[in-house]
Amino acid sequence: MEKENVFTSTGVKLLWHGEVIEQLLLYKTASPITLQVAPTSRCSLNCSFCSNRNRQKHEDLDVLDLYVVVHELKNKGLKAIEWTGGGDPTLYKEINECIRFSERLHLDQGLITNGILLNENIEKKSLDFLKWVRISMNCLDYVDSISIPYLNSATLGFSYVMNDNTNSDVLERLNDHVLHYRPAYVRIVPNCQATDKEQEENNRKYKELVRSWGNPYFYQEKVFEQPKECFWGYFKPFLLHDGYVYPCSSVVLNLGSEERFHEKYRWCRMKELVKKYDEEISPFATTNCNHCVFTKQNNMVTQLLTPTGMENFI
Question: pTM for this one?
Answer without folding.
Answer: 0.95
